[in-house]
Amino acid sequence: MREIVVRVGWLCLVLASSSRLAAQTSPLVVEESSYSIYLLLHKIGTESYRVTETAPGHMEMTTTSTSSDRGMKRTVTSKLGMGASYAPLSLEQRSSGGASEDEWRTDVKGGLASVTERGVDRKMRSPAVSFVGYGTMSASVQMMMMRYWKAHHQPARLPILRASEKTLPLEIKLVGHDSFSVKGGMVRLTRYTVANLMFGREIVWMNDSGRLAALMTFAGGLPQEEILEGYEPVEAELEHSGIQQELLDLGDLDRQVPPLAVGAFAIVGARLIDGTGSPAVENSVVMVREGRIVAAGKAGAVKVPVGTRVIHAEGRSLLPGLWEMHVHYSGVEFGPALLAAGVTTARDCGGEFEFLTTVRRKIDRDHALGPRLLLAGLIDSGGPLAFGYVDVKTSAEAVEAVDNYADAKFEEIKVYTQIQPEVLKAISAEAHRRDMTVTGHVPAAINAFDGIADGMDQINHLQFVTRAMTTDGSTGPVDLESERAQKLIALLKEKQIVVDPTLGWGEMAGHPKNVDVASFEPGIDAAPFTLSSKFRALGVPAADEAKFHERMETNLKVVGALYRAGVTIVPGSDTGLPGYGLDRELELYVQAGMSPMAAIQSATIVSAKVMKLDGDSGSIEVGKRADMVLVDGNPLEKISDIRRVVSVVTNGRMYDSKKLGRSVGFNR
């Protein structure tokens, strides 16, 4: 075995080879390696790539990624053709597995490019310096993108050839250096951020040999990492470095959107919908001082001290800050996006421990841009089928996991699908002992009746309720008058079980592909292309349209029945469109039979009571946190007016909604 040095462009590659390689005929393998793929720090697959020299000055890279996320297997293959200095000539990508198969292709020749992306075709002039790629790019393709960027003098903006004119150029920035000890030797990595490839800024590490050593992304909606073979021992150190970079990115956002008002100010003239259920107060005055509401009532009854800053809000409605009760807060860009929609409190239902606790601390202590975060610690059991990093199989392990979350000041435990009944009982008992509640998926081994008996206090996703209403556990039409359905509704009410339906996410993920997303979610048109393209690509074949409408009708009927029976319902959008997903959830609740006032209360005082924070938040009352949202129109008459956010007050600091949204690409 000996080493051969192959010089490709600016990069000097050191490759191990046998003596047979010298005699090998074309194509010559010049580089190959693999990556481990992680979702929520849980390894779900691998990516392997090989680069061959196909002709003098020309290379081809083939990549295969295989993953299994909670049992859903997916394979993505790609073939990237390159000329001198990594100039892209073609890119083919195919994805199979899961709910659908997708194909992409880009060809570049003579200054022209043709792109086919999920059935959309586009021909365009190719800028002199540009690269190829799609919304979710493999680590190996991104490695070639970074080499191309460096070989072309690191332009501030790198156009990406895609099938939409809305595609923004990438903004790649060198942001720092990290050194790690790997197998007894020091390794130096250069850290970059990449904006406009996915929502927010991806973090990429390159080593001194020009290989992409690792990346952190949430292009798929949840935190993901890819780590080059040989760097797995420093996974935790890479994650920590990435989180520190996220804080730097959050600081950039803070500087972009300074508050409109802080300290003492008065909001005057708005229609006050205080969240208590009382009739709206026209022409109101709400006084804020040092983060608290110090007065609220009708103009004339509340005096504004001389010298107090006045925010005029005539013709608008003032509501308590909204609560998003099911979000996966995967990056700091979620903060401005949620605040822009009026969300001042968000419950994370399964994320990465260090990231969440670090960002929560930054928001609480330094008023960083983001809603108040409440955390539900994710626990699963089941090896390859598990979701997340915390994987327990015994009662003793369950108790230890709960205690770790409790010590870190998590409010809840979120259980997941593979947990066994005895382990669920242990989780629930320890959580209750530590003054925590238990929410989550009803484990696959039981149904909702059993989950409640085993200690669950809340249920995420309506499907676990509807399945338990049928004897066969199906998700088809439900007879709400059946003995079983009535028994479950009564049990939910008796035990005060909280249901988080996530209707909007089911609609978004399950809509027929021939139905325009904007027809039910108009917020898609205001979202950055990195998000809108992802959500427009979701859906099921048009042939399933009847099943989709049947399922949505069933869900609305079940939510309506639960509400009328007095079951507590809280709204959450899961991995839906940030901010707007909560708006859609409330619109669906009104369609299900809630009054607009009841829907608003579900996202304010009801959620606050569920989280045992109604003494501090959830309504506009004297002494409570100054968390409020100002909207154009009257959502009591038209619930969709809740989308028309003008400004938001979080912990006594008022921000402009449009500026918040634009800081992360939304055009509100």
Please write out the topology:
Layout: E1 2-8, E2 11-17, E3 28-39, E4 42-55, E5 58-69, E6 72-82, E7 88-97, E8 102-109, E9 112-117, E10 120-125, E11 131-132, H1 139-151, E12 160-161, E13 171-182, E14 185-195, E15 201-207, E16 212-217, E17 224-228, H2 235-256, E18 264-268, E19 271-272, E20 284-289, E21 292-298, E22 309-312, E23 316-320, E24 322-327, H3 334-340, E25 343-348, H4 353-366, E26 372-379, H5 395-407, E27 412-415, H6 421-433, E28 437-440, H7 448-453, E29 458-460, H8 463-468, H9 483-494, E30 498-500, H10 503-510, H11 529-536, H12 545-565, E31 568-569, H13 580-591, H14 596-602, H15 605-610, E32 628-632, E33 645-650, E34 653-656, H16 657-663
Parallel strand pairs: 11-12, 18-22, 19-23, 24-25, 25-26, 26-27, 27-28, 29-30, 30-31
Antiparallel strand pairs: 1-2, 3-4, 3-17, 4-5, 5-6, 6-7, 7-8, 8-9, 9-10, 13-14, 14-15, 15-16, 16-17, 18-20, 20-21, 23-32, 32-33, 33-34
Helix pairs in contact: 3-16, 5-6, 10-12, 13-14
Written description of the protein model:
The protein is α/β, with parallel strands linked by helices. The chain folds into 2 domains: 2-256, no CATH class; 293-663, TIM Barrel, CATH 3.20.20.140. Helix content is 26%, strand content 33%. The chain contains 16 helices and 34 strands. It has a 13-stranded antiparallel β-sheet, with helices on both faces. Strands 19-23-32-33-34 form a 5-stranded mixed β-sheet. It is globular.
